[in-house]
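Lab notebook, entry 477. We have the chain sequence and a SMILES string for pyridoxal-5'-phosphate, and the next step in the workflow is to get a structural model of the bound complex before anyone spends time on docking refinements. Request logged below.

Task: model protein plus pyridoxal-5'-phosphate, output structure tokens.
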Amino acid sequence: MDTGTLLSKLNKLNTLSSALEISESERSRFVEQLSAYANRFISELPEKKIFHNKKPESLAISNSKKSFIELLDLYHKEVTETGINAASGNHLGYIPAGGIFASALADFLAAVTNPYAGVYYASPGAAEIENEVLNWLKSIFSFPQNSVGNLTSGGSVSTLIAFTAARDKFQIKNEKIRNSVVYISPQVHHSTQKALRIIGLEDIVLRSVPLDAHHRMRADALNALIEKDIAGGLHPFLLVGTAGTTDTGAMDPLDELADTAERHHLWFHVDAAYGGFFILTSKKELFRGIERADSLIVDPHKGMFIPYGLGAVLIKDRTAVLHSNQYVANYMQDAVTDDLIQSPSNVSPELTKHFRGLRLWLPLQLHGVEPFAACLEEKLLLVKYFRNEAGKLGFLFGPEPDLSISYFWYPFESDADEKNRMLMDEIHDDGEIYFSSSVIDEKFVIRIAVLSFRTKKETIDKAVQMIQRCLKKVQTR
Ligand SMILES: *Cc1c(COP(=O)(O)O)cnc(C)c1O
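Result returned:
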């Protein structure tokens, strides 16, 4: 290609590709439109239906271009008005979400500036923010400052990193897999089994430890199982305790579990994905022993009300973590720094990553910790309040919950399971407040999980009225 042709091609391509760098006036206009939309969305939340039993229809990418306003409209209709509105405080099902605005601003800032957070050398500032968030987490869980941490996309990936470190420390490979044992609760989150499968431990022996009446793992039963396995020639390897079970909100007795793990030299992992941040509340005492864990996961996108996509893992054994994750590629030789764990990419399967630390660092710097702790304390009391008020309507409840999840059912005289299921359907049809259901001790139950920062006393009052209205419908059928 001669220089003339080359230059004319470049000219043409430049004109076309320049569309990606939009002008300052357009940027301002889009941000204003987005801001107006966000304000409307948030102010309408309390009155909006929480659940739309509807599927999206027109999200396919087409050749015809759309304006930003059209796209906002489309998003509104096809995304925010299908399924569960997870940003709403009326969400009391599954594990409710958050979505604090300060995190949205942080995401915007991170996306515009786009620093390379995976490698310290490339962006010491961004890597440092990731690490400062981890340092803060280490301090609230009393983990040593020299432990390793990583900010992940969520609890499931955090679990993968923790279990991989455990696997590599204990060298669970080849024939050792079938003889090694993992101890879990029947209430363990399914991401545990999934992680074991993904990291090649599908054939490991899984033991389900019996629970007490509060759905907490029984340390005595655990000890008995371990001793039996040792006598049988097996190798107890990993103990998974849960600080706040997803279904029942129960706290396993962490300190006793830590004793047992220590006695038998197991890797002690604590899943605090849902419950972890309640350590900032009056429930702190229930977390005694968490600091003795070998690894810990916690989800800021649950208990810190951050938008989806922020989990964390803390691990004490840095050698084990580096063994699975650290690698020096030739093309990255300039980027090796002295302290390996300064770079998130050395302790995670990710290399290039979303600069997700900013979504927690910025809100903490803007608001301080206090409003977060107060909000969690409020959630604990709201569940109590719900139990009192729905109790007055004749509902029965599971045990007094350790945290902000509980379950209940109506004692219909006959076909209780069937009728509670009908009640659940009525509640979903009503759509004002969202609850989900579960099966606990073979009984159909309705769950309440309070964790949205937008759930308030008024929400619970509305929920109780709605349940009463739905109950009447089932009773008069
Ligand atoms: C939500 C949850 C997980 C999984 O975390 P994700 O962030 O959804 O991947 C694991 N354990 C518990 C107890 C949870 O509540």
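Notes for the group: The pocket of pyridoxal-5'-phosphate is lined by residues 95, 154-156, 189, 191, 242, 246, 271, 273-274, 299, 311 (CB under 6 Å). Worth checking against the assay data. The two ends are 81 Å apart (CA to CA).
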